[in-house]
């Protein structure tokens, strides 16, 4: 019987099968940030187990609150920094080099097809875009991952979502995944991997695939996965060129992780990409979506463009194409957080930062604190934010605040009018 | 092994997420104990007041998809330091459920019809739970009413509960 992508990765990484469907797998990478790792570090120290299984396979970053906003967050950063130093963890990204974990780690080439990755962060599913099994875990799983390089999972079934055709102008990966979550529901993929495929996915850049996989968790999914292809190889080529004699060889090696033609799935869902429209969330759950065009009465106080979902260069390009030569509404606070120093630099070189600033946006350093109401863009009671982030939970960006999730294009258009607005009225045409 | 007995708090809503269980503004804490005052701080639910209701209970019975959203283990920790060691629901988000057992706590699923029945019979009353882990039975009681409900947990989950969590288990096995 054929295997799907997750099954192939599990088969090549299994170390133990201690109970029924519990599989303990070997980890290729353990990612860490300053919010969920310090308690694991302190616990390891207390237990007399202050070791790491392989410092080269552990990557760490300070990204949720940076620069530190108070003594507590400074302490969290210090615990992570001191730990990285004493264990020789070379890939530790501190201030000046840091960015949003799910943007900076792929950018450094740390995720490869067939890899297994865990992190104490639910949006770790992002890295499945590379044909990897990447799952968010809690601090205890992270702690064991750091110490032993293994993690236990229920053997996951997969849902196959085939997105056929092509996306209309002005419809993006974010609209696609929000529509999918709307169909699945917030519990529709719990304990399952979502394998994305079809022409729309084949034609997506790695950045778009990351946006797609990033929100698999909002349907309860363990991981979102896209099959590795030449787009994956191209993205990784600067990091793998000494491992393979050609791109074709790399592709051939990675294709062992593509699903077999007779692979089985718990469910198969087909979506016609041509029928998708720009959407945004209402209410407090990410499966509550409506076409953006039906939400034009919703006034916003803040527009946030950034996060592990939509803070990458393509996202900033699209938003800038909408904002170019325009001013944001006088009552709107516009905030953009390029997700990594490299993205920030590219945006500077391309004149994108100037477009944002001329439009009236505040440009912050790379960080993801606003998304969960920790720093750099917290809402007050009763305020409304149009946001390119991933969760519209009640109070997520600040107690009593409301979040409407949408694409960077819609968020930029919304900043201009002050009301939730479809980007197509501002689009110059030809932008992807 | 932890205690899985106590007074039951009924939370009549699905999809209670970990931001509601412990908001991100408290994630700057680096000890579990520091989370104690903030359990369910952002849960807005008619008739529920965290300051009054949390101290009086140590068991949660709720609906579907409890613990969805963020992977923060601060959610089980905030429960743990308030002596809540067990949550009973129709089902759970994967990471939350794993985090509970990884801490030697329990997240037990019951059929929606059984949860309905528990709400109908016991919600709004002073309800107590006693957990029989040998026979896999919950005993609910309130105002002279009693109900015994069988449950199942996997071999792995039981091993974690008995080992006091995943660190202890993994350290002795891998």
TrEMBL record, chain A:
> What's its EC?
4.2.1.33
According to UniProt, the reaction catalysed is: (2R,3S)-3-isopropylmalate = (2S)-2-isopropylmalate
Co-factor(s): [4Fe-4S] cluster
UniProt cross-references to CDD domains, sorted A to Z: IPMI (cd01583)
Q: Which residues form the Aconitase/3-isopropylmalate dehydratase large subunit alpha/beta/alpha domain?
A: 7-418
Q: What class of enzyme is it?
A: lyase
PROSITE patterns assigned = ACONITASE_1 (PS00450), ACONITASE_2 (PS01244)
A GO BP annotation: L-leucine biosynthetic process
Task: Output the Gene Ontology terms for molecular function.
Answer: 3-isopropylmalate dehydratase activity; 4 iron, 4 sulfur cluster binding; metal ion binding
Task: Determine the domain of life of the protein's source.
Answer: Bacteria
Q: Which InterPro entries does the record associate with it?
A: Acnase/IPM_dHydase_lsu_aba_1/3, Acoase/IPM_deHydtase_lsu_aba, Aconitase_4Fe-4S_BS, Aconitase_4Fe-4S_dom, HAcnase/IPMdehydase_lsu_prok, Homoacnase/IPMdehydase_lsu, IPM_dehydratase_rel_enz, IPMI_cat
Q: Where does [4Fe-4S] cluster bind?
A: 308, 368, 371
Give the quaternary structure: Heterodimer of LeuC and LeuD.
The record's function comment reads:
Catalyzes the isomerization between 2-isopropylmalate and 3-isopropylmalate, via the formation of 2-isopropylmaleate.
Q: Which family does it belong to?
A: Belongs to the aconitase/IPM isomerase family. LeuC type 2 subfamily.
Protein name from the UniProt record: 3-isopropylmalate dehydratase large subunit
User: Origin organism of this chain?
Assistant: Desulforhopalus singaporensis
From TrEMBL, chain B:
Q: In which pathway does it act?
A: Amino-acid biosynthesis; L-leucine biosynthesis; L-leucine from 3-methyl-2-oxobutanoate: step 2/4
Task: Spell out the InterPro entries in the cross-references.
Answer: Aconitase/3IPM_dehydase_swvl, AconitaseA/IPMdHydase_ssu_swvl, IPMI_Swivel, LeuD
What terms describe the molecular function in GO for this protein? 3-isopropylmalate dehydratase activity
Top-tier EC class: lyase
In this chain the Aconitase A/isopropylmalate dehydratase small subunit swivel domain maps to 56-111
- List its EC numbers: 4.2.1.33
Q: Which reaction does it catalyse?
A: (2R,3S)-3-isopropylmalate = (2S)-2-isopropylmalate
Which keywords does the record carry? Lyase
**Keyword Membrane in record:** no
Protein's UniProt keywords contain Lyase: yes
Offer one Pfam family short name for this entry: Aconitase_C
Lineage: superkingdom: Bacteria
Report the protein's function.
Answer: Catalyzes the isomerization between 2-isopropylmalate and 3-isopropylmalate, via the formation of 2-isopropylmaleate.
PANTHER family noted in UniProt: 3-ISOPROPYLMALATE DEHYDRATASE SMALL SUBUNIT 1, 3-ISOPROPYLMALATE DEHYDRATASE SMALL SUBUNIT 2-RELATED-RELATED
Subunit architecture: Heterodimer of LeuC and LeuD.
The entry's protein name is 3-isopropylmalate dehydratase
Write down the species: Desulforhopalus singaporensis
């Amino acid at each position: 019987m054929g295997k799907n992508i997750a099954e192939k990765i599990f088969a090549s990484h299994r170390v133990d099968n201690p109970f029924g469907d519990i599989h303990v797998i070997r980890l290729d990478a353990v990612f860490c940030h300053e919010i969920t790792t310090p308690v694991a570090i302190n616990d390891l120290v207390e237990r007399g187990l202050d070791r790491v299984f392989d410092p080269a396979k552990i990557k760490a970053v300070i990204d949720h609150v940076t620069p530190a906003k108070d003594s507590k967050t400074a302490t969290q950063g210090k615990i992570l920094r001191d730990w990285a130093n004493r264990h020789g963890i070379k890939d530790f990204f501190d201030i000046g080099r840091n960015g949003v974990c799910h943007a900076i780690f792929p950018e450094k080439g740390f995720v490869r097809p067939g890899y297994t990755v865990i992190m104490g962060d639910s949006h770790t599913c992002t890295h499945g875009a590379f044909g990897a099994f990447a799952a968010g875990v809690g601090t205890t799983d992270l702690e064991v991952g750091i110490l032993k390089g293994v993690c236990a999972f229920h053997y996951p079934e997969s849902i196959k979502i085939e997105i056929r055709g092509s996306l209309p102008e002005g419809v993006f990966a974010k609209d696609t995944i929000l529509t999918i979550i709307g169909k699945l529901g917030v519990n529709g993929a719990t304990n399952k991997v979502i394998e994305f495929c079809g022409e729309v996915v084949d034609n997506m850049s790695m950045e778009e695939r990351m946006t797609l996989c990033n929100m698999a968790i909002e349907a309860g999914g363990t991981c979102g996965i896209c099959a590795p292809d030449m787009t994956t190889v191209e993205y990784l080529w600067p990091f793998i060129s000494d491992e393979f004699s050609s791109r074709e060889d790399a592709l051939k090696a990675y294709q062992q992780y593509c699903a077999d033609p007779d692979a089985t799935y718990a469910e198969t869902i087909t979506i016609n990409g041509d029928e998708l429209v720009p959407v945004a969330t209402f209410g407090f759950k990410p499966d509550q979506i409506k076409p953006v065009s039906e939400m034009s009465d919703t006034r916003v106080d803040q527009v946030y463009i950034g996060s592990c979902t939509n803070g990458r260069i393509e996202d900033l390009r699209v938003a800038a194409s909408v904002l170019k030569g325009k001013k944001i509404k006088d009552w709107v606070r516009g905030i953009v957080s390029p997700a990594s120093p490299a993205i920030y630099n590219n945006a500077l070189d391309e004149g994108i930062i100037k477009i944002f600033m001329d439009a009236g946006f505040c440009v912050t350093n790379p960080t993801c604190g606003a998304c969960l109401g920790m720093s750099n863009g917290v809402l007050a009671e009763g305020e409304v934010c149009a946001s390119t982030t991933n969760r519209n939970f009640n109070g997520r960006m600040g107690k009593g605040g409301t979040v409407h999730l949408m694409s960077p294009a819609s968020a930029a258009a919304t900043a201009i009018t002050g009301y939730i607005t479809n980007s197509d009225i501002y689009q110059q045409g030809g932008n992807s | 092994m932890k205690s899985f007995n106590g007074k039951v708090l009924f939370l009549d809503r699905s999809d209670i997420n970990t931001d509601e269980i412990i908001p991100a503004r408290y994630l700057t804490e680096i000890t579990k104990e520091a989370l104690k005052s903030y359990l369910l701080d952002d849960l807005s639910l008619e008739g529920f007041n965290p300051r009054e209701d949390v101290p009086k209970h140590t068991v949660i019975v709720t609906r579907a998809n409890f613990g969805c959203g963020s992977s923060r283990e601060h959610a089980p920790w905030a429960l743990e330091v308030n002596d809540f060691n067990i949550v009973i629901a129709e089902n759970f988000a994967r990471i939350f459920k794993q985090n509970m057992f990884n801490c030697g706590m329990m997240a037990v699923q019951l059929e929606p019809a059984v949860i309905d029945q528990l709400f109908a019979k016991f919600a709004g009353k002073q309800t107590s739970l006693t957990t029989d882990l040998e026979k896999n039975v919950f005993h609910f009681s309130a105002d002279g009413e009693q109900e015994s409900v069988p449950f199942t947990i996997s071999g792995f989950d039981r091993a974690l509960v008995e080992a006091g969590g995943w660190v202890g288990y993994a350290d002795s096995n891998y």
